[in-house]
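Lab meeting, action items carried over

1. Structure of the two-component assembly. Owner: GW. Status: complete.
Input record:
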Amino acid sequence: MTTPYRRKRYWNEPRMGWYERAYIFEVLRGLMITGRVFLKNLGTFMLGRRGALTTYYPEEQRPDYARHNRGRHVLVQRADGKPQCVACNLCATVCPAKVIEIESACDLSDAAHPKYPARFAIDYSRCIFCGLCVEACPEDAIRMQPETPHFPGPDRTTMWSHREDLLSWQPARDAAKPYPPAGEEEAR
Amino acid sequence: MPEIRINGQPIEARKDETVLEVCRANGIDVPCFCWHPELSIAGNCRMCLVEVEGRGLDIACNMPVSAGMEVYTESEAVRDHRRAILQFITLNHPVDCGICDKAGECLLQDHHYAHNAKASISHEPKVRAPKHVDLSDRIVLDNERCILCLRCTRFTAEISKSHALGVIERGDHASIRPVEGHPLADDPYSDNIIDLCPVGALLSKDFLHRARVWYLQATPSVCPGCSRGCTVDVWHRKKEWFLKSVGVEENLKIARVTPRENPAVNGPWICNKGRDLAKILERPRATQALIAGQPVTTAQAIEHARRLIAGAKSPRALVSNWGSNEELEALQRHLGTRMRCVVKADRKAEPGERIEDDLLIRADKNPNTRRALELFGEPAADAAQGADLVLLWGELADPALLPAGVPRIVLGSWIDPVNDSAQVFLPVSVQTERSGHYTNFDGVVSAFAPCFDKPAGVSDAAVLFAQLALAPGARP
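Predicted assembly:
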């Protein structure tokens, strides 16, 4: 025996008189609002002035990102320009969308950092900008900048960002991250 | 049968057992680094400390049972000492798990987390040591990570008997080094020390930085390198971790091969040849059916082969002893009455390869000779002579077996000049693309499972035998 469905009554149920129940007057009122905004935008567009808030992407990009917006990724570089990344794959492992792919390689001549990423790629067609990669990184090697990545195109397979693009930013004098770390030299 | 009490629970033990063995046999977890069931007792890691009523703390791995002893494995004193031992072991360990290939399957990581140990409390700078010491062309030693459990030196001294490794220096400068005059490269079992190493000190050069272990899955398989038929784990990338942009070829490659413990065949060991299965199985593949060297569809090639078989008076089949039990039985069922089947060797020993020893390696370098001979009998020396059609299945170790000038149907997996000179060539799958069983020289049957999908155009040999047995023009 199932109980029959009963529509839930809300505290703010609209009270409708005969005018609202006639339906057509209210529809016309709504169309008038839409039409007024449309004609106003059309007019300003024809006069060559900005009307709606539309940004004409990709020719036009908005600069007003919040300071802590999680946008495109950058790979931090050491003083000698090599990536800070040690290819531990923790970012790729923690990534909920599985968009980070790293090919690690071994350079025995660099005794302090023998393992490095030979290739590093992020697929921005699937990235959800959660920032877990930045949190997981034990080396502070991956960070996010406020501006978004730009991959306008008709094909989602071309939205990979590779090591060369990601290494485009270098903190010239980053007081928070001196290299080599203080105390490392005398310990050796 | 002395009865002892472990954590208050009475347990029957054998007289010749140690407390550690009794604990492990009864599912009581006692952590250890240096103890290994197949090696002698070293007792140097001190991790398996237990408390015995009236005798205080001592190591369980070297403690024979005696009647009426009361053992506590989880008392407060034991836990305190375990944490202290872990502090001691990590005193000079670099804890560079981020770049260590062992991370994820490392005993030191596991014990550290399981026993809730703290990060190092030492203020002293860690002793630095060489990060890359070449032990052989296959193995590299990271001296900083070594915890000196001496499993590797005991393995080379007791199991492989190459005596290739020893310890030099003392205290925190002690390190594993190769012994002069006993090169580790000459030890055909050397790679077992990589699995034995409880930390990431001994690393395979072939696997170095190729993948984090949690990206890989192990598929049970059988080593086809010799008639011992050791059971192995073939490690390959998990489907959910398949790469899409960077190094996509890694998705369908064997990352590494490790032994799958099997007391009936190989115990916990395999030889280095078994670790290099990729060298045999990942040679350039033949995936296109051919008629007289010209590419055709598989259906056309099968139809041409059926006509050749129907027109032959005395056809012979050269049977692959790399075929699984199922494939050999399929051949006998479908073509056994039509053709005379002759078992031949697919591969022989490579130059410089160890032929035979008394640990694992057998002289016959093919996995399933026993089952093939059971089904088809010992071949006569001139068995292939006098044929007017030869069906060659698999490779041919001895090219003289193939009679000259006779039309050939070839079933092969890899690119080979013999494919182009055959009347019909049909591509077949390799071991990592199908399931089946091998019977080793002793009659022990072991199963292997598929790791990868077959490439387009490639079929299983068992399916092809059924199709070849039909009359020309028949629809399967």
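2. GW to write a short summary for the group page. Key points so far: The two ends of chain B are 65 Å apart (CA to CA). Chain B is about 20% helix and 20% strand.
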